Amino acid sequence: MKEGETMRAAVLRSGELVVDEIPEPPPPRLNQVVVEVLANGICGTDLHLTTDLDGWYEATERAGDVIKLFDRSRDTVLGHEFAGRVVEAGPAVTRVAVGDLVYCMPMATDAEGDLKCLGFSDSYPGGLGQGATVDEFALIPLPAGLDPAVATFMDSMIVGEYAVVDRARLPAGAPAVLIGTGPVGLGAITALTRAGAGVIVAAEPSAPRAEAARTLGADVVVDSRTTSWVEAWRETGISGPAYVFETSGARGMLPALIDEVPPGSTIVSVASGTQDEPLRPSIAVKKDLSLLFSMGGSLDHYSRMAALLGSGEPDLSGYVTRIGLDGVGEAFEALQQPDRHIKVAVLPQQA
Question: Residues 273-277: contacts with CB within 8 Å, 24+ apart?
Fold first, then answer.
């Protein structure tokens, strides 16, 4: 990539998502590479950025998540779940070589030494552009044969496993409930099966996502529009506390769960609603509930998930919809009512 040239990208501009020609990413500095982006997964956070940018920004600012704060008056190339091919390596790069296929933790250090999070930066483009500059430490080599589009499930898998294993510390044999079985919910289901969970009950209104939940390990799946998960839970004959993973992000869900779960239960919120929620602590106190919030994943998580996806267990290839850049706007709209897609991977090199 040459300085002064342009590339196509999906840009957040004045709160609107547009596809345009923009400058190519900055040239690689010490311990950086430039990646030709082959696939970028659309994340729920991307949807927040286009539907409630001010609410998302306020929450991010209040949380002190400074590497995701950007100038909202400038163009920002979204996309933080992406895989690609190394096309240029800066000085001192030793872990990868030009031509390698990699998944990218979306990190780049600027000339002032400040770490930027790609997809949330007005100076370093994210994965919805044709190219990205990434720090070498943030690269995970892809196993041979792993489709870059399928690799975009990696963040969802990691978020699910972190919630189940690292935050909830689910005991083997413990029963679990999933609220929502989008990509993160499915990642949590696969983590629950690997962790040896007992009965897994899932609530999901989307038929394709419900079927995916069954295939990947949920024992009981109910349509949350017509059947309460509580009813399905009781029908299993299980009594006592539950581990409940809330991945839908639906407004009012946390207060509802505090009312619904059995005493002694653990609720893990793995979604990131952008608005305040009214909670009544006395109910949670009287029921002796544990309420956890989860968002995480280390470089080790990424390496392990890459190996897992590369093995084909679980096989997630059938749950990815592949589109070119020109289809981004339509895909963002469709994912607001996710009856058609489970995971959408944008292929920026395609129109």
Answer: 273/249, 274/48, 274/52, 274/55, 274/56, 274/58, 274/59, 275/52, 275/55, 275/251, 277/251, 277/252
Do 214 and 342 lie in one domain? The reply is: no
Name the phi and psi angles at 190, rounded to 5. Answer: -65, -35
Residue 202 pLDDT grade (very low, low, confident, very high; cuts 50, 70, 90): very high
Residues 159 and 96 in one domain: no
- Determine the pLDDT at residue 271: 85
Q: CA Rg, the chain, in Å?
A: 20
Residue 306 in any domain: the answer is no
CA distance 223 to 45: 24
The answer to whether position 231 is within a domain reads yes
- Arithmetic mean of pLDDT, 259-267: 97
Pairing assessment for the beta strands 200-203 and 176-179 based on DSSP bridges: parallel
Quick: pLDDT tens for 166-176.
999 999 999 99
Burial 204-240 (b: 16+ CB within 10 A, else e): bbbeebbbbbeebbbbbbbebeeeebbebbeeeeeee
Beta strands in the chain (DSSP E): 6-13, 16-23, 32-41, 76-77, 82-89, 101-104, 107-109, 115-117, 131-135, 139-141, 176-179, 200-203, 220-222, 243-246, 266-269, 290-293, 320-324, 343-347
State whether 132 and 143 are in the same domain.
yes
Mean pLDDT throughout 147-173?
96
| Mean pLDDT score, 57-75 | 94
How confident is residue 339, by pLDDT bands cut at 50, 70 and 90? confident
Tens of pLDDT along 6-43?
999 999 998 899 999 999 999 999 999 999 999 999 99
Token pair, residue 116, equals 């930027």
Q: Dihedral of CA 53/8/127/119: which sign?
A: negative
Total number of domains in the chain:
2
